[in-house]
Write a structure and sequence with these properties.
Elements lengths: L4 H9 L31 E6 L8 H11 L4 E6 L4 H10 L5 E5 L3 H5 L4 E4 L9 H8 L4 E4 L14 E4 L6 H11 L3 H13 L4 H20 L1
Parallel strand pairs: 1-2, 1-4, 2-3, 4-5, 5-6
Helix pairs in contact: 2-6, 5-7
Organism: Desulfuromonas versatilis
Pfam family, one: Glycos_transf_1
InterPro entries: Glyco_trans_1
Length: 220
């Protein structure tokens, strides 16, 4: 059992649990109803990043893509903590008032300020919680195609997936939201729907199904 298809495949390719039945059970998350606010100004695109400030998270890539956009009314909010030396390097990479470093903030505090979350990870994320946290607040997501990320994104409905090895791939996905500023609002319903897959009660049901199947197999 794994929390993503990616994790299950990694186990099998390593020669583990070859005779076991495979199950995917996601991790759970529920957004507080009081923290789900309307999508920010539809006439402005605010991209956001939430997570550790470290090279494997692809923040350099995100900053380079944002810099290429060269859009006057577009902002990037970066939330999270990390190595101060690396953070200083990032601030020098793109020196613009359109990029704000917020430090540590509660997820809902960021989601209530942005239209789109970007998860540009360069490593194979097993199942990035931040993606379905964003869904729980009605926020679409742009993710890299690493690890379990692409399997929880419905392309064109809850977000977009890009290949970080292609220099302009992230730029083109971000441009979709700039060229059609109503897109985040239209995707909101599908994001909130997708968030239902990760509700704690849904996850409990999935675990019960796994345990019941194991019991039935043992009894038979």
């Amino acid at each position: 059992m794994g929390n993503s298809d990616f994790i299950l495949k990694q186990h099998v390719e390593s020669g583990l649990f070859l005779k076991a039945k495979s199950w995917v059970v996601y991790n759970g998350y529920r957004a507080s109803g009081s923290s789900i606010l309307p999508t920010p100004r539809p006439d402005r695109v605010r991209f956001g990043y939430l997570g550790r400030i470290t090279p494997i998270k692809g923040i350099d890539l995100l900053l380079a893509a944002f810099n290429r956009l060269n859009e006057p009314d577009t902002q990037l909010l970066i939330a999270g903590e990390g190595n101060e030396r690396y953070l200083h390097k990032l601030k020098k990479l793109v020196s613009s008032t359109k990029v704000q470093y917020l430090g540590y903030v509660k997820p809902e505090d960021l989601f209530n300020q942005i239209n789109v979350l970007v998860v540009p990870s360069l490593w194979n994320e097993p199942l990035a919680r931040v993606v379905y946290e964003a869904y729980g607040h009605g926020i679409p997501v742009i993710t890299s195609d690493r690890g379990g990320l692409p399997e929880i994104v419905e392309e064109g409905r809850t977000g977009f997936v890009f290949d970080p090895e292609k220099p302009l791939a992230l730029v083109s996905k971000m441009k979709k939201f700039i060229e059609d500023k109503s897109l985040p609002g239209r995707m909101r319903k599908d994001c909130l729907r997708k968030a239902q897959d990760f509700l704690p009660e849904k996850i409990v049901e999935n675990y019960i199904e796994v345990f019941q199947a194991a019991v039935n197999k043992h009894l038979n």
